[in-house]
Fold each of these.
Amino acid sequence: MRAIVIGAGIGGIAAAIRTARLGYDVTVFESAPGPGGKLSSFEQDGFRFDRGPSLFTMPQYVDELFELCGENPRDYFHYRREEVVCRYFWDDMDRLIAYADPDLFSQEAANVFNVDAHLVRKALDASETKYTYSGKIFLEKPLHKLSTWLSKDVLTAIPRLAQMDLDDTMHAVNQRQLKHPKLVQLFDRFATYNGSNPYRAPGILTVIPTFEHLIGTFLPKGGMFDITSSLVALAKRQGVKFHFESKVQNVLHTGTRVTGIELNSGETHKADLIVNNADVHFFYQNLIKDVKLPKRTLTQERSTSAIIFYWGIRGDFKELGLHNIFFSNDYKAEFEALQSGTIANDFTVYVNATSKYVQGEAPEGTENWFVMVNAPYDRGQDWQKEISRIREHTITKLSKIMSKDLRSAIQTERTWTPPEIQVDTGSYLGALYGTSSNSKFAAFFRHRNESKQFENLFFVGGSVHPGGGVPLALLSAKIAADLMPRST
């Protein structure tokens, strides 16, 4: 039996591997010249840049795909656990090293901010409790299935509902637990992992620090694109075929079944099963006709986007680590601006430089910087004007905090804006994570992993359950595959 996967993002690649293991003859059609979607890369003037996600957590979900195929992941894919998760910088020159080890991190926070280390460790323990009792429910299972809610995991979690902080916001929980404004700001920023607002997102999302400080952050040997290239190679070893620069323009269907696809060239391909990895909004608006639209899903609030600068930098900035956060002075104003569709005059800047740890990423004596500023999704803003303003403030801010002239250090540059993200990846309005999680019901409103209208149509990727980011996209493929019939 034949299966077609629409899109070679990381969710689509994982789905192709899992579908092949179910006995299907799998073909992936991708409109871009290569695989990965947001998890792709490019080279410019001797520098290599990962285009999108720059933080790697939950590596077991990648390893699991190799093990599913009877392979040892260490034969093909290598990574290391980072001792330092992130370095944090404030304009008043306060600096904090966030160690991966929770006790070291708690003690560092105590030393820098003169707080009780036990306070920080207690917040991390509360985060871990949320993950222990809710993670498998919300991240690894289909939420529309009765069997999920009758499972042992749910029965075990019910007595602990009060500890899930469902009726508080992330900010309220962090303020209650951490007290110190800069620690609250640090923990609030975890909302940006899924493009949400900590002043509106539910308190259960304070589960996110567990991924960094209890499980850890990791760096693939060849940078983030190693995840994509390793899994594409694995998929090919399972017989999966990839067709790039092959844009799907129509999903064919009859009755309660999808029957194949039509490419923009007019060429058609039949299928017994189809997996959609394209953004669900794009899918319903552009790829399938004469169907009932899931209006509640398509009208949900979008997540944030980003303006990203890719800078080739001359020099060795020793104060920087792999991941670095330069905070704004007024975090609440920053998120209020994003909510209204603008970027505040003072904003947080994220800097990643894999060349500090990966050989061959940049010419000798230089570094490759991924510089990201959270931005609203595209509402028709003058992005060229914004780029000029954001670039100027970013350079001024970083130069001041590091006491170095950054402007003269930039050797090569490229930008990525919300409209470009939409064009390049199909993400509706450039929203990086599909819909936001600014409601305690957001998880239930995300598009499910199987179609309600077609029995052989499935959905994976960051715009569907369980959400955006590499680990969750990989989990979407696992959930979808568990719902698929085996090939006969």
Amino acid sequence: MATDELLIERLLRVIDEGRRTATYKLALLLALIDAAATSPGEAELPTRVLAERVLELYYPQTRAYVDRTGAAHDLRQISMKGSEVLAAVTSLRLAAAAHGTRSLHHVRQIMAADYQHTLDAVEDTFVRYPIPLMQVVGGTSVPFLYSVDWVEGTAAKKLRRTGDDKVRLLDGVADRLVVIGPMLRPLIELHWARDVARWTRLPMEDDDLRSHLFGTDRTSFPKRLVGELSDLQHDECFYCGDRLIGRREVDHFLAWSRWPNDAIENLVLADRCNGHKSNHLAATEHLVRWRTRLASAATDLRTIATATDWVSDADRTQALVHTTYSHMVAGTPLWLRGNEFELATGPTAV
């Protein structure tokens, strides 16, 4: 395995690549980071899983972007004229809109055949090009993240027939991606937004574009969802236990900036504690409370998600929390209350 310094240097080289002709490599990096975090202990990542993560990234990005002047723009994710991936994802989103649904989670349920067809297009493109090409430096393959058993242009179906449709992470890479992933994500998003702005001919400094692409402008949660969470928490702040009088804010227990995850299992109601906690990791006592709630109210949370047309994904949420806390380094500040923090003594079991 490469040293941490060399691994980071090569990752930064990919992120800051000036001759990039598509956002595919950036999407693949985020997919690898997410897959490593949600599959703790797994050294082999199926290409289908990576394709699912890529589809999740591109699906909301196929919406037209409306700038501050009111002008609408179809965003370009590639410098060339067309992209099979983006065409397939756009077609899926439009078909979903015709069915009256916008959430990819529900598309997967009610339009299973269309979803799988789109996933086929995404997987095949990424197997053919970004996966075998991302680690090529000066025409030579220099593996620093994973190894694969195919060359550029190989079809996904061919790999699936022989059971070779997976990438093998190099020793120690999964753990390093979990640790540095939240730090790399903002940089990846910034370069992704800059690429899209350049190819779409938009102002490079327009931060609204990044919010549009990655959901950093969190929209309001449905009133019924807030009400149901309030009932579940007996109208008390999840963190301090005070009555929720007037101010009720939905907080991502594991901050969105670390791991984008809107699943109901990651949402709690808070008062002013939400502002104090910000994007910090919660202290051990809050982690224990969250873990207890997940175990005791799993059915209630799924019921709330169903009633409010929201996403429920306990497995993914638990995996993200587990990998985050089990890879903490000693000295990490953990938010306790108000302006008080405790320092992590090292990895914490979840």
